[in-house]
Amino acid sequence: MAIPLDRIAAEARQVRPGRLFLTLLAAPLYGLGWVAGTLFLAAAWAGLSVKAGWADARRTRAGAG
User: Fold this and answer.
1) What is the pTM of this model?
2) Residues whose CB falls within 8 Å of the CB of residue 7, separated by 6 or more in sequence, listed in order
3) Burial letters for 6-37: b for 16+ Cβ neighbours within 10 Å, e otherwise?
4) Which pLDDT score, from 0 to 100, does residue 25 have?
5) What pLDDT score does 15 carry?
């Protein structure tokens, strides 16, 4: 079995270290943004749920009194 040196060399020339570096730099920042966005939406959902429950409780109490 022959080693395909020409094909390996051609693929090695296509590697762009700058692009790899930028990808490695951006990946954690993207992940951090995704986590922050998810936490923000979860907190907003929880806050609005509390607000809706509070309004329902006040409405029930006002009708009973």
Assistant:
1) 0.59
2) none
3) eeeeeeeeeeeeeeeeeeeeeeeeeeeeeeee
4) 95
5) 85
DSSP percent split of the chain into helix, strand, coil, nearest 5:
90, 0, 10
Question: Looking at this protein, which amino acid is placed at residue 32?
Answer: L
Return the ∠ at Cα 61 (arms to 59 and 65), rounded to 5°.
120
3-62 pLDDT tens trace: 899 999 999 888 888 988 999 999 999 999 999 999 999 999 999 999 999 999 998 877
Lookup: tokens for 6: 């020409």
User: How far apart (Å, rounded) are the C-alpha atoms in residues 27 and 34?
Assistant: 11
What size, in residues, is the chain?
65
